[in-house]
Amino acid sequence: MSLGPARRRSAELERHFRQTPDRFRVMTGDRPTGPLHLGHYFGTLHNRVRLQDLGVDVFVIIADYQVLTDRDMADRLGEYKDGLLLDYLATGIDPARSTVFSHSAVPALNQLLLPFLSLVSIAELGRNPTVKDEIANSRQSTVSGLMYTYPVHQAADILFCKGNVVPVGQDQLPHLETTRTVARRFNERYGAVFPEPDALLSAAPLLLGTDGTKMSKSRGNSVPLGATADETARLIKGAMTDADRHITYDPETRPGVSGLLMLAALCLGRDPHDVAEEIGDGGGAALKRTVTDAVNTFLAPMRARRAEYAQDMPYVRSVLRAGNERADAIAEATLDEVREAMGMSR
Ligand code: ATP
Ligand code: MG
Q1: Which of 58, 65, 73, 164 is the most buried (most CB within 10 A)?
Q2: Which overall architecture, per CATH, does domain 229-310 show?
Q3: pTM of the prediction?
């Protein structure tokens, strides 16, 4: 999928956020499948916090049902949910201004899936390139119905609160198209109820992991936000590079080296070409030292805040309970509106 139009639209949205933050509602989230990583931070977390701080209403979903898209059972769910909450708070999500909730706690949201599924064809579901990629990387021998339908479930996640901006990584662009299609078709059939939301891409919509492919929680190639400095050093030491000692930034031909350079560049707020030039003929070892220092320095304050919040897990979990309540009330109201529009009101 071409990034050009999404990038242009993202730039246009930036101007509006500043002028009229109250016209926007941000909705985005993560699956509790493991610890959040630098790809999340630079791909979406940073944008969530930035928009919250500009005065935009922000909703963050912990997508627990969607854990089951590519595995039989949701392992260590409690631990991963706690981890997500800690990462959100540590990166600056403020529960007084933003709403954090989980799928399974908001039944009315999930009920939207039924009418929404009637709005898309099986062929459309099968064509989604991200779903195809996730099937290829799935740990299951068969593909479940949930895998094919979860982009429609995501439409329910976004539209239940009438979210109109969705800060996401590049892999989510096809899903956003599904949400837009669902909203448009619903409105055409039943009257104007939903906005057609826009994706908001960050400057790093696809951060690569230590193996040179998309950094992902479940692919064992990520640098977790909450890792210790030593763990971070070890992960980066094991990263894939190549035999050329002269370090250059070339994502096409040198994904491993370039992914590492991009990590350092983002953490240092610099251009990856400049970082490469500075390392010059230093080879993979010097590159990895630079990246490790940059990442650990950048994450240190966040990690300190995370450790502080971890001292008070009852508070951390209360953030989710309060968010669930707010999301539930909004979902009920939207479901009523949907039933009314469809002639199903009681
Ligand atoms: P999993 O491997 O379990 O699918 P994930 O690392 O892909 O985990 P998700 O919970 O699926 O994480 O994605 C949450 C959000 O983070 C999405 O908006 C996604 O686009 C974004 N994101 C995930 N990985 C990256 C990445 N490497 N670069 C940029 N954005 C990313
Ligand atoms: Mg994913």
Answers
A1: 58
A2: Orthogonal Bundle (1.10)
A3: 0.94
